[in-house]
Amino acid sequence: xxxxxxxxxxxxxxxxxxxxxxxxxxxxxxxxxxxxxxxxxxxxxxxxxxxxxxxxxxxxxxxxxxxxxxxxxxxxxxxxxxxxxxxxxxxxxxxxxxxxxxxxxxxxxxxxxxxxxxxxxxxxxxxxxxxxxxxxxxxxxxxxxxxxxxxxxxxxxxxxxxxxxxxxxxxxxxxxxxxxxxxxxxxxxxxxxxxxxxxxxxxxxxxxxxxxxxxxxxxxxxxxxxxxxx
Length: 230
Hints:
Blueprint: E1 2-6, H1 16-30, E2 34-41, E3 48-52, E4 55-61, H2 68-89, E5 94-97, H3 104-114, E6 118-122, H4 133-142, E7 148-151, H5 154-161, E8 170-172, E9 195-196, H6 209-221, E10 228-229
Parallel strand pairs: 1-2, 1-5, 2-4, 5-6, 6-7, 7-8, 9-10
Antiparallel strand pairs: 3-4
Helix pairs in contact: 2-3, 3-4
């Protein structure tokens, strides 16, 4: 099976989507699938390819701009060109698109044109905000509805079911989980340090580090028998 993933978010960018892709593509490749990833990149001037853990990363250049609409058009154009070339080189069985908005239009239009199944993984809960209505409608109006959704959070999965997508299969796969090392049913090892709190996010306001900081202050004012480490 030949799966072509598309995402505007990948290394050297760090974050949930990049981690999710590295784990997912590696797992699919280990199962014998032909896996490729298209990444539009404004920092390069020519097309490049690289091999990573059994899958291929194809970076396609576009000219950067601060104009949001022009940027989306340039990303759409360069992704569609690469999709056309990739399909000519070797027929694509499935297109799997990941980022919030940058590559969705190109993926939707091309999958409809070539009648290729389209899967979309939504990593963002803000997709359901009223202000995102155009972002939801336009790719579908321009191309096709996805043939399946993958949600990285149960709340997002429930949001899909109540947003007019209930007839499309929805699968829940936690974001950024490496199945080889994640063992949710194993009891944690005891620690003499007391209670350890891990904040596995970048220091960005949208990730809520202020919430953790306020919680630390409140805990420090309480008298607990346990030692806390953050």
